[in-house]
Specification:
The protein is mainly β. Helices cover about 15% and strands about 50% of the residues. It has a four-stranded antiparallel β-sheet. A hairpin with a 6-residue loop joins strand 10 and strand 11.
């Protein structure tokens, strides 16, 4: 009996010892795991920071060169030996033409342990671009759920609208009839009447860095000048600061569109006998003067975007024009090297994109290395919204779109009137062929989503270029020809 009990006691003792040893082993395993995790996490954090700093350095040299990078393996010594590999990926999204959101993700796995990931993010701003655009370039990421846009407020104006531009929470609206220019600021509406009762066809607003004053540059049909410069610094005291009659163009030929960039106005007129594209120096807004003698486009231009960018290490300034003519040319790219010879700018057409189906270019917008083009006058079922790779607009492949869609819905044939983009969203202003029934489409800017439709906002009689997104206020302004003429749209929460 005593021998039997001794054996049982030994078995029980071994069982207890096994439990204790298992706990010790598990504790040691856990300690090793957390030691390895801490060491590899620190290394991954370092690699993630280096990746972001490399992107930041690239953005300082060339803002457009800071782009997403697909997953790559970091072939350091440990990876080569097969014990540990880090996989790195960066994602860059353009918040506006002057701001980018960047994230860096590093994943790793030690054999026998689960995969672990660390991620850092930051933002890059283009100071030179902000200055060149006269401060008209928001930096904030669009907040809330823009897949369900809602009306925040609205305002009635006194005339039919022709275009708009938003700056720092205010919206400036050009009009075809009196009072011709109205400003909506802090819930109040202020107006300016053209002295010769001439229609204002479009507007671009910029801040003058020399004195901080704000000017509305207007494309007009005025005999006093196709360019009108209106001082809107104090909306209660709006006045005409200057103007310019274009050279080589009849005073009755109206200016159509304009774009402010780097103290110059790039202005287009309707197709006429003289040149349709002009560069005007507004370094002194009260005394604008034309550089050179213009450039003959040979057709009307309905929208324009301008910027400086590097191609193969050489800086160029390009103008992208949405155009239309009988031989269905829709997009024209001009190289405007006016910084080398300021009195006689060299303007060269470097690319013209035509499409087989009849129609005209109606709207353009630049965001990062993407150029968005909208077309009008097309039959239902024909693509009318395109995305091009704008990293080299002079290349032979530029005119081949990387994405294209038809913005029609199931019941209405639509066409594109205006385009804006911010972060993950593209805002496309559309209307039907009569111009009465329209909607603002919110689509995904992620290439993997193939311009997926996220939501819509119904709007009537949307004006040409009558939409602008204000990143600073997180608001989308839309102007129409029907009451209420200004609609302030925001995201749902």
């Amino acid at each position: 009996m005593k021998r039997g009990f001794s054996t049982l006691e030994i078995i029980i003792s071994f069982a207890i010892l096994a439990i204790i040893l298992s706990g010790v082993v598990m504790a040691d395993f856990g300690a090793q795991y957390w030691t390895i995790t801490s060491q590899t996490s620190n290394e991954a954090l370092y690699k993630s920071k280096i990746q972001l700093e490399n992107l930041r350095a690239a953005s300082k040299r060339d803002f457009l060169s800071a782009v997403s990078q697909s997953v790559v393996r970091d072939n350091d010594a440990s990876c080569s030996s097969g014990s540990l590999c880090y996989y790195m990926e960066s994602k860059v999204i353009d918040t506006s033409p002057c701001s980018k959101y960047a994230s860096s993700t590093v994943s790793w796995q030690v054999y026998g342990y689960p995969t672990t990931t660390t991620e850092l993010f930051t933002t890059f701003d283009d100071a030179a671009g902000i200055i060149a655009r006269g401060g008209d370039c928001g930096l904030n990421w669009p907040s809330g759920n823009w897949a369900s846009p809602t009306l925040a407020s609205s305002a009635n104006l006194r005339s039919n609208t022709s275009g708009s531009d938003a700056l720092n929470g205010s919206v400036y609206v050009s009009e075809y009839a009196s009072p011709f220019l109205e400003v909506l600021k802090s819930g109040s509406v202020y107006s300016y009447s053209s002295s010769d009762s001439a229609p204002f066809n479009s507007v671009d607003v910029a801040r003058n860095l020399a004195n901080g004053w704000v000017y509305a540059y207007v494309a007009a049909s005025s005999t006093q000048g196709q360019l009108q410069v209106i001082d809107v610094t104090d909306p209660t005291k709006i006045f005409r600061a200057g103007g310019l009659v274009l050279s080589g163009v009849s005073s009755t030929t109206p200016a159509q569109e304009l774009f402010f960039y780097d103290r110059k106005i790039y202005l287009t007129t309707l197709f006429a006998s003289g040149p349709e594209f002009h560069i005007i120096d507004v370094g002194d807004p009260t005394n604008p003067y034309e550089l050179g003698s213009g450039f003959s486009v040979g057709m009307s231009a309905y929208d324009i975007a301008v910027r400086e960018q590097y191609v193969a290490g050489i800086k160029h300034k390009f103008a992208y024009l949405a155009v239309g003519s009988s031989n269905v040319k829709n997009l024209l790219v001009l190289d405007i090297d006016d910084w080398t010879t300021p009195n006689h700018p060299a303007i060269t057409a470097v690319n013209t994109c035509s499409f087989a189906s009849a129609g005209q270019g109606a709207a353009v917008y630049l965001q990062g290395n993407s150029l968005y083009l909208g077309r009008a006058g097309l039959a239902k079922g024909t693509p009318d919204f395109f995305v091009f790779d704008a990293s080299d607009p002079a290349s032979s492949s530029f005119c081949t779109p990387i994405r294209s869609i038809d913005v029609d819905d199931s019941s209405v044939s639509r066409y594109v009137k205006t385009i804006r983009a911010s972060g993950p969203y593209i805002f496309i202003g559309t209307t039907n062929t009569s111009g009465n029934q329209g909607e603002i489409q919110v689509r995904s800017s992620d290439a993997a989503d193939n311009l997926k439709l996220l939501g819509t906002y119904a709007i009537s009689s949307l004006s040409d270029n009558g939409m602008d997104f204000d990143n600073d206020a997180n608001q989308l302004y839309a102007v129409t020809a029907s009451s209420p003429q200004v609609q302030i749209i925001t995201s749902s929460q």
